[in-house]
Amino acid sequence: MEIKFINRSNNSTEIERPPGEALLDFLYHNPFGEKIVLPIAKQKFISKWYGKKMDSPSSKKKIKPFVKSLNIDMTEAQKKISEFESFNDFFYRKLKPGTRKIEEGLVSPGDGKILAFKNVSEVNTFFVKSEKFTLKEFLQDDNLTEKHKNSSMAILRLAPDDYHRYHFPYDGIPSQPEKIEGVYYSVSPISLEKKFTEVFSKNKKEICKLKTKEKGEILIIPVGATMVGSLNATFQPDTLVKKGEEMGYFAFGGSSVVLLFNSNSFELDRDLIENTKNRLETSVKMGEKIGTAIAK
Predict the structure, then answer these.
(1) What pLDDT is attached to residue 133?
(2) pTM score, two decimals?
(3) pLDDT class for 55, splitting at 50, 70, 90?
(4) Known catalytic residues?
């Protein structure tokens, strides 16, 4: 399976080569891998065990080969490779101040590749091979489901080589995150093609309600994935935050951040909508505009 996406900086179509591509293909497209190995690989203890390995000082030796193989720009990072204490310390590295510009409107909460849906009901037209996605299964909250049944939805997927801290997409007052325990399916397109509903309904996640001054409630939902040992919030709940302020970080692995918001408050950028309709993700950076605030 070729993972194609649109490079937003030059509007070119590119191909992503994820680490462990052959293993992912085996787990999600091979009958033996899917039925025998995947049920074990998605369990919490596997990701927790590997997460601990990535916290050990001996894991530092993995950093240089990882950076080289994925061509990661380390000039953006606050630390040099030699200064990291473990692979995870490198993985959730901080960037130098000013590395990401915080633009107008609704912005991307992180670096990654994004899918944009004007209405959450359109998700099922993209992931046609998956079982039908329902907001109720995803949110596991009847009141939130009713409130956001006609909301717009953006799904930001962070690959292992991306910057793995996530930030607030708009000014507001965030709630205490509600933790929903679950399993750890991969969020790679290789797995989402067949198991989108299972991934987002059953994976571990946290739901944060960002109360804005004039644009209603934005749900910010970090979702864990295979080999993501933890979701780590770094903000103070019930305190005013500014757009672009850090919200948290993911430990080792791929992961996602889902946004749900009133379509009458924000209009998603047309290029993101069109690329999604063409079944393509779009690469974005943290702080980059993804939607326009609608004047009332």
Answers:
(1) 82
(2) 0.86
(3) confident
(4) 111, 167, 255
160 CB-near residues (< 8 Å, 6+ apart): 18, 19, 70, 91, 252, 253, 254
Distance separating alpha carbons of residues 38 and 226, to the nearest angstrom: 10
Which tops the pLDDT comparison, 76 or 296? 76
* Ramachandran area for residue 225 (φ above 0: left; ψ -120 to 50: alpha; else beta): beta
Give pLDDT, residue 244: 97
More confident residue, 33 or 62: 62
The closest of 182, 195, 176 to 140, measured between CA atoms, is: 182
In the chain, the amino acid numbered 182 is G
Residue-wise pLDDT for 153-181, tens only, equals: 999 999 888 999 999 999 999 999 999 88
81-116 as b/e: b if 16+ CB within 10 A: eeebebbbbbbbbeeeeebbebeebbbbbbbbbbbb
Helix 189-202 vs helix 21-29: angle between axes, to the nearest 10 degrees?
A: 60
